[in-house]
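Researcher: Here's a chain I'd like modeled. Treat it as a single chain, no partners, no ligands.
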Amino acid sequence: MWILVLGLVLFFGMHSARMALPSLREAQLSANEKRWKGLYAGVSFAGLLLIILAWWVGQGDNVALYTPPDWGRHVTMLLVWVAFILLASANMPAGRIKQWVKHPMVVGVALWGLGHLLANGDLFGTLTFGAFFLYGVINRIAVIGRGDPAPVVVRPRSDLIAIVAGTVLYAIFVFALHQWLFGVSPLAAR
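Model: Modeled as a single isolated chain. Structure tokens:
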């Protein structure tokens, strides 16, 4: 359990630097941008590896906290599909999706976490997916406080590409990668 908690603290601690310690982050970027980005990537990656390791080795410590609703798996499938589309749109020139959502990656992470909370009721799942959901919500609130303007649409075709790319990646993940990576098929009835 401690491995999971340490991984979550490292991963989200680093990802929260802009929200929690903006002046420190700016000072580090100004002093040596490459060093800061290297540290950011290294600590984040170490946290992610610890989260994955905890899931692999710690399932014996895992306990059920709640019973997910019967409809939770179906809602999860929809929310995760939308999250994949939002993640795809975050990495493209601004289209209407990016203009409307402003920060599609943050919203996608929150939807992904929320969906998984509806489908998993165990301790590891609640901690992991709850952390992603809370991070997404808190980060979105912080972004609103910064007053970032909505991106200007530069390529409306980006929306179509994001929908297609997000849907294809979602299908690959649902039909193959999720089972292979995590040992659970999202399509299997529980």
